[in-house]
Amino acid sequence: MFRKDLALIAIMALALTFTSAFAGIDQIAIFNENVGWTTVAAAKEATDQIVASVKSAKSVKVLNKAAIADFIKSTHDDGTVDAVVLFGYLPETVYTPGNTQADDSLIEKFIGGGNIVLNAADYIFYVTLGGGKNGDKGLKTITNSAFDCWGADADKFTPTAAGKKSVPSLPADYNSPRPMKLAQIEADKNWEVEVAFGSAKDGALLDPAVIKSTKHGGRFVVVRQTPKVAPDRGHVIREILENYVKKEIVPALAVDTISKLATTWSKVKNF
């Protein structure tokens, strides 16, 4: 009887894992109460575009500072893939300003739990309560890397083949003075460029781009990090979620889970 009970528990666990693997993005939380390098009105317009047209998530909600902290606490390790969307401002409720949290901040736990953070407008994780109090060390601290997003106004970006396929709302050419740098990512064994939708300087500078952890599978995404008016931001974020995350990331997670299911079931049978 004891062995039968254990087998039943294992099967139930497998079923739950299998279900979560095909759920796609479970929940999306958008923070637009504070912004950097854009206006609250522009961020809300982009938010409206995302909320109205993203259909692949169970829920898409706009949350304030307190609520987004609660959201991360409840979702960062729940076994599903969730997403947070920011507009150039990292809420002080999820990361103490000034980079005093070397590890275990809520935002780092969220990424470390295999979830996704998308940031548009200002330098990712740079701006918070008190302005640029995190500075460029915000990204470095949260990702435990040497990454920076320093670029130039003159850099001309164009969509990559992946961008033309998945993110058709990207302009034919555009500016991103705060891009990710391919060489820095390739030099870090803990991160990789999963996909770049736009690039400059023969692929050396990337934006938009999905950067993935090789350790835990969490991701952060830079999206149109520029102070210039970018009415396409909401559509670009929507297309990344609907055309890439839904069609590329979710199926890959499902395949990985099926493999784990087969291995676990084999162990159960042997037991």
Features:
seven-stranded mixed beta sheet, five-stranded antiparallel beta sheet, alpha/beta, 40% helix, Rossmann fold, 271 residues, 12 strands, globular
Furnish the topology, listing elements before pairings.
Elements: H1 2-21, E1 25-31, H2 40-53, E2 59-62, H3 65-75, E3 81-86, H4 106-112, E4 116-120, H5 137-143, E5 156-159, H6 161-166, E6 174-175, E7 180-181, H7 182-186, E8 191-196, E9 198-200, E10 205-206, E11 209-213, E12 219-223, H8 233-270
Parallel strand pairs: 1-2, 1-3, 3-4, 4-12
Antiparallel strand pairs: 5-6, 5-9, 7-10, 8-11, 9-10, 11-12
Explain this structure to me?
This protein is an alpha/beta fold. It has one domain (2-270): Rossmann fold (3-Layer(aba) Sandwich). The chain has helices at 2-21, 40-53, 65-75, 106-112, 137-143, 161-166, 182-186, 233-270, and strands spanning 25-31, 59-62, 81-86, 116-120, 156-159, 174-175, 180-181, 191-196, 198-200, 205-206, 209-213, 219-223. Strand 1, helix 2 and strand 2 form a beta-alpha-beta unit. Helix 1 packs antiparallel against helix 8 (233-270), helix 2 crosses helix 8 and helix 3 (65-75) runs parallel beside helix 4. The model is unreliable at 14-23 and 254-266 (pLDDT under 50).
